[in-house]
Amino acid sequence: MKLKPKKDLIKEALTKQIAGIIPSREALQKVLESGKKLTIYWGIDPTAPDIHLGHSTNLFVLRRFQRLGHKIIGLVGDYTARIGDPSGRTTIRIPLTRLQIAKNLKNYKSQILKILDPKKTIFKFNSEWWEKMKASDLLMLDSLVTHQQIIERDMFQKRIADKNPISEMEIQYPLLQGYDSVALKTDVEVGGTDQFFNMLMGRQFSKTLLRKEKFVITTPLLENPKTGKKLMSKSEGNYISMNNDPNKMYGKVMALADDVIIVCFKFCTDLEEDSVRRTELRLKSGENPRNLKSELAYEIVKIYHGEKKAKEAEREFNQVFQKHELPKKIPEVILKAGEYNIVDLLTATGMAPSKSEARRLVIGKAVRAGGKLIDDFKDTIKVSPGLVVQVGKRHFKKIK
Amino acid sequence: MKLKPKKDLIKEALTKQIAGIIPSREALQKVLESGKKLTIYWGIDPTAPDIHLGHSTNLFVLRRFQRLGHKIIGLVGDYTARIGDPSGRTTIRIPLTRLQIAKNLKNYKSQILKILDPKKTIFKFNSEWWEKMKASDLLMLDSLVTHQQIIERDMFQKRIADKNPISEMEIQYPLLQGYDSVALKTDVEVGGTDQFFNMLMGRQFSKTLLRKEKFVITTPLLENPKTGKKLMSKSEGNYISMNNDPNKMYGKVMALADDVIIVCFKFCTDLEEDSVRRTELRLKSGENPRNLKSELAYEIVKIYHGEKKAKEAEREFNQVFQKHELPKKIPEVILKAGEYNIVDLLTATGMAPSKSEARRLVIGKAVRAGGKLIDDFKDTIKVSPGLVVQVGKRHFKKIK
């Protein structure tokens, strides 16, 4: 089946949120304009229970190709995750167990399908072919690459220079990922720039084993432009999940550094490029970053939870943090009425994990009871139903 | 079943023709003296149709352990041969096909059993387990070693320094050979010093996967003590095969350099150490090396073909080379009687592969016809039945 080539949309699909195309943008454009239906894949490792906003760029890029009529495959690296991509890591990764992977996989699809079209997205798992592969199959792949070629990869070079060990299993990782391109007979692979080496391996294997020219599209990583550090990393745990509830998601965006507002507008939303440029100008001309960040937070929550929930999250955030009012919904805890030492009260309500931690919170002026600051840990509190205890800015419990 | 420890024989088995023992000679001695029956293996790659005298050292060592009552396994690396050990090689080895391997395997057993006891020697093939191994099994082994550890191997270091490519398949070779020790649950591995790295890998895997301390016995390589170069190499083709017929074997030994007489006595025969020492003294005191070489040649032919054939080979050699007489048996070639230019005669009898090569042989004074030196390539020879044509010292054809 031939697709109708839509020149404007093709141009957008080949430029927006894209870092580079191998062998060239022009070559891929030619194929797209020919009307040929392509198979495009994006791989993701189930190394954490959810997907973060750093991944959304890939999904926006894929959605554009999906809207052009191409076949989109989300490849879950459930086999390779047991090995672990050495990308950017300085130490040997601890391989995941099957159980951990199964747990992490649970919510993957629903998160991805918040952006991609559920009716048009195919999911594959690389255990499907890798579990069947024999040692001799892997050795055949090994025969196609040289040690020198693998070791060229920047993160391997870094580990060697730093005298950090590299497991031979990690050395095999690019070959495994590369073979996925062959198994999927894919025309295009989309991935972050940190996947460039692995994606080129797939390009090489496709050429050798399928006589096929696989295109590679890289997307920018979500980084703080001031420090160059990754904004979100699954393996390091600091990320905003697509699965976060609206309030948490809104709050986490508001907690981001002002330096990253524009990159987040560019890569975590799919707003028109013109609109992002206007926001950038407002920031440069001195507008309070907080205004722009709330627009960002609203936009992001809208993507994953819809407009209504975005409005509610905005209202809630403003009520609690800006007007210092109590939030609408406070979790309740059952406690017998009576007099309680503040330390005992904090541990009994589960707001402090230990007495010593409770004391530290009180000394640090983080604790309020009935709206009143409590700064002496010998203080006694009269507890009765309806009393609100607060720790920090966002942690509330109401006595039932 | 406990073995009767024979202290004298154990001492000989642990020293004669041995380069080193890991972790120590004393540790292995202790186990041997305990009377425990051990499984001892020696691996050989079927990379040529026959086994050469450089391998005989290992077989003499194994025979001593066999006579002590231990279980001896000859492991044919029919699977790993498809990959090729990178030992000492500076370029990527061309993997063997199954067909080549099957062909090479054909005469292996009979050669090995000229030294080992046919009733007490077990043969195994590592395809037996490796063909069943899954990619994940190989990856498990990969996870047990670091890239840094593998790359330490001297021949890898040399190739890297010389910017010669190393295939990733070759990098896996030591892991495959190492796993053989696990599959065989072996107590001891015997091999040349060039196998030290691979044998230590097997020791490491045995420790990790079987909680077993595998001993490693290395034997010296057959080298020219003056140049340090290998005397025989299957992969380079310059070797004396255990399968060579008595005359060829005798002649090849006689063609060895005088410098290597003593190492060949030490490692290619199983003569008493005292007797070898006496030979060394005779050489040092100025005796004609040719005398000693004929003793060596006689001794070696005796090992593989028995005393009678050794005597015959000696007689034949003396007749042809020392008394300049014609050999007893000359291969015959049918040729129409008549006048032949010497160059045409050499190519027609198959004694030169081309006319230009035939001319070179004539110019180099290597050609005789009917006993007469022919040194002009324009010469014409009268050919009739019974005429003997000779190239060099040992290449004869008789016209039929």
TrEMBL record, chains A, B:
Record's catalysed reaction(s): tRNA(Tyr) + L-tyrosine + ATP = L-tyrosyl-tRNA(Tyr) + AMP + diphosphate + H(+)
EC number(s) per entry: 6.1.1.1
CDD domains: S4 (cd00165), TyrRS_core (cd00805)
Pfam short name (any one): SYY_C-terminal
GO molecular function, one term: RNA binding
GO cellular component: cytosol
Residue span(s) of domain Tyrosine--tRNA ligase SYY-like C-terminal: 326-383
One Gene Ontology biological process: tyrosyl-tRNA aminoacylation
Top class in the EC scheme: ligase
UniProt record similarity statement: Belongs to the class-I aminoacyl-tRNA synthetase family.
Name of the molecule in the record: Tyrosine--tRNA ligase
UniProt source species: Candidatus Azambacteria bacterium GW2011_GWB1_42_17
